[in-house]
Amino acid sequence: MKSVLIMSCDTCAPRIAESIARGLESQGKKAAILAPVASCKEEACGNSVCERQAAQWIAQGKRDQLISLLIDRVEEAGKGVDVVVIRPIKASGALRCAYDLNVELAKNIDAAVLPAICADNKSDDEIVEDIHTAIGVFAQQGLAVHAVASGCNDAVVARMAEEKIAVLQPPKRNLKFDDIVASSNVVPPVKFMRFLHAKARQNKKTIVLPEGTLDRVIKAAAELHEQDLVRLVLIGKKDEVLASARECGVTLSDDIEIVDPKTDPNFGDYANTLYELRKAKGMTPEKAAQLMEDKTFFGTMMVYKGRADGMVSGATTTTADTIRPALQFVKTKPGIKTVSGVFLMSMADRVYLYGDCAVIPNPTTDQLCDVAVASAETARAFGLDPKVAMLSYSTGTSGSGPDVDAVREATEKVRAADPELAVEGPIQYDAAVVPAVAKTKLPNSPVAGHANVFVFPTLNAGNIGYKAVQRASGAIAIGPILQGLKKPVNDLSRGATVADIVNTVIITAIQAQ
User: Fold this and answer.
1) pLDDT in tens, 208-238
2) Residue 268 neighbours by CB under 8 Å, 6+ apart
3) N or C: which end of the chain has fewer CB within 10 A?
4) Are 497 and 483 spatial neighbours (Cβ–Cβ below 8 Å)?
5) Who's near 14: CB < 8 A, 6+ residues apart?
6) How far are the Cα atoms of 39, 139, 206, 348, 474 from residue 106, in angstroms, in the given order?
7) Average pLDDT across the chain, whole number
C-alpha cells in the first residue's frame, strides 16, 4: 500500500483528492481517500480523528501517540487498496499546528507529498515560482515531491516537465501512479519505534529482569505485557514483587513469571553449572551457591541455560556488576573478543548508531576493529544498511599523529575483517554526515556524507558525543546496547526511566532473534 498526502492551504484539497483517486482508479488502481483529522461532525462519517481530540492530545504532551494513531488510521484505510490519497490536516482554532502534523505524518508513513498550487489570477512565472518554493520547502523536510497539482495551463506543465517535475491538472487527470507515490524513506522516531515493536512481536522472546521489585521495572513490565511485545520474568520474592506493584498502582498479569532464586527448583543445577564453568578459575561449590543467590548472576544463568533469551539489568547496579557474569560464562561470539556498548540514536528523520559509548575506555586498534564490525552487525539487525565512520579529529590524509594513525590502522583492520562493509576512516564527524563537506574533504568516498554508524576513538569521546547530541537535538538515545556476547545482556543507566527500560527490553528481544 502506497500513500500520497496532498498539501494545500485552501479549500481545493477535497476536490484534488477526489480527482486524483478517480484518475488512479481509471488506470486500474484501487484508491481510498482519507481525512486523518476532521471536525467532530465529519469524524463520525469515517476513520478520521476528531480535531478536538487531536488538540487535547497535543496539549497533554501526547504528540507521538497522536501520530501513531493517525498512522493506524492510514493503514486501516489502506487495506485492500493500492494507494491512500490523504487530505491535509487543516488548521483550526483548536488545532494550530496542522502543517507540522502533516509533515510528521508524511514522514512516518513514507508518503509522497503532492503540493496543491493555486493558479488563479497568477502569471506563468508566478506559478512556476510557487512550484519551486513548495518543492524547496518540503525537500528541506526530507520529503519526496515528484509532482504538484495545479490548475495551470499546458505551457507551465511543459516548463516543469523539462525539470522532471510532473504537474497534474485536476480534473484532466494527467497523472501516473509512479509520479505521486515515490516514498521519502526518512525514519523519524515514531516510525522507528513502530518498526521495533512490530519486529519484537514477530518472534516474541523471553527477557529476564533481575530488579523485579523496583517500581520502574514493574511499570515497564506491565507496559511491555500490555503491548504484547515480549514474555517476561521478574526476579524477586513473589510477595515483595506484588507488594511493590500495588504500591505503584500496577496490576501484574499472571503471564509474567516471578522467580525467587532461593526457592527456585533449578537453583542447585545453576550453582553446579557455575562451579563447573569456573572451577579452573578457583570457583568452589560454596562460592557458586553464594553467587547464585545474587539476582544478576541468577538472571544471567537463566539466559545461559536457555530459560530466558536475554537479560536487562543495571537500574540499581553498575555496568561492571551487570556484565561481569555474562563475561564470565556467557562469553563473546566466535571471532569477537571485545564487548562494547552502542546507542541507537533516533534523530528527527533518521537513525544513527554510536559506539563504543559504555565499556572500553581506551580501545586498541584491534578493539576499535571489533567495535566497528559488531556495530555494523547490530545496525543490520535494526534495519540499517551500515556505512561506518571511524571518527577522528582529522579526515583522510590531512593529519597525522598517534591518535589519527591508530584510527587509520583500525580502519584497515576493519576492511580486512569484512571486505564488503562500507567503512571510512579517519574521518571527522561533519565530513561523515554532511554531503557538502564530504564533497570537499573526501569526494570519492561511498561513506562520507552518508554515514550512519559512528565508531568513536575513545569512551570519553563516545559518551560525551552521544549525550551532547541527545540533549542538543532532542534525539531519542536507546541503549547502551551491549554487543559481542553470544546471548544478549543489556545494561541500564541507573537513572533509566520506564520508557528507557521498555526500549532496552525491546532491543534485547530483537537481538535475541
Assistant:
1) 999 999 999 999 999 999 999 999 999 999 9
2) none
3) C
4) no
5) 87
6) 20, 12, 35, 13, 20
7) 87
Pairing of strands 206-209, 49-50: unpaired
What span, in angstroms and rounded, lies between the C-alpha atoms of 348 and 343?
16
b/e for 232-265, b at 16 or more Cβ within 10 A? bbbbbbeeebbebbeeeebebeeebbbbbbeebe
CA distance 201 to 479: 20
Start-to-end Cα distance in the chain: 27
Sequence-distant (6+) residues with CB within 8 A of 219 are 248, 250, 498
Q: Which three cell numbers stand for residue 393?
A: 579529529
Read off φ and ψ for residue 179, nearest 5 degrees.
-70, -30
pTM for this one?
A: 0.76
Residue ranges with strand state E in 368-488: 387-391, 422-427, 453-455, 476-483
Of 150, 83, 74, 63, residue with least CA distance to 106: 74
Q: Rounded to the nearest 10 degrees, how much is the dihedral formed by the CA atoms of 39, 44, 50, 51?
A: 0
Q: Side chain identity at 46, as an amino acid letter?
A: G
If 0-12 CB within 10 Å is exposed, 13-18 middle and 19+ buried, where does residue 226 land? Answer: exposed
Residue 490, exposed/middle/buried by CB under 10 A (0-12, 13-18, 19+)?
A: buried
In the beta sheet, which residues pair with residue 505? none
Cβ neighbours around 231 below 10 Å, total: 18
**CB of 96 within 8 A of CB of 52?**
no
- Reading the block at residue 265, the C-alpha cell is 527448583
Burial of 289 (0-12, 13-18, 19+ CB in 10 A): middle
- Residue 292 sits at φ, ψ, to 5 deg, of -70, -15
Looking up cell 521489585 gives: 213
Crossing angle of helices 63-77 and 98-108, rounded to 10°: 60
- What the block records as the C-alpha cell of 260 is 525467587
| Residues 197 and 116: beta-carbon distance below 8 Å | no
C-alpha cell at 22: 478517480
Local structure of residue 88 (DSSP, 8 states) = P
> Exposed e or buried b for every residue in 361-400, given b needs 16+ CB within 10 A?
eebebebbbbbbbbbbbbbeebebebbbbbbbebbbeeee
CB atoms within 10 A of CB 80: 8
- CA dist., res. 289 & res. 268, Å (int): 8
- The total of other beta-carbon atoms located within 10 Å of residue 447's CB is 23
Which of 82, 100, 34 has its CA nearest to residue 181?
A: 82
Which of 3-17, 93-107, 489-503 shows the lowest mean pLDDT across its residues? 3-17
Give the C-alpha separation, 210 to 325, whole Å. Answer: 13
Runs of H (alpha helix) within 293-424: 295-304, 319-325, 365-381, 402-417
pLDDT at 94 over 70: no
Q: Is 252 left (phi over 0), alpha (psi -120 to 50) or beta?
A: beta
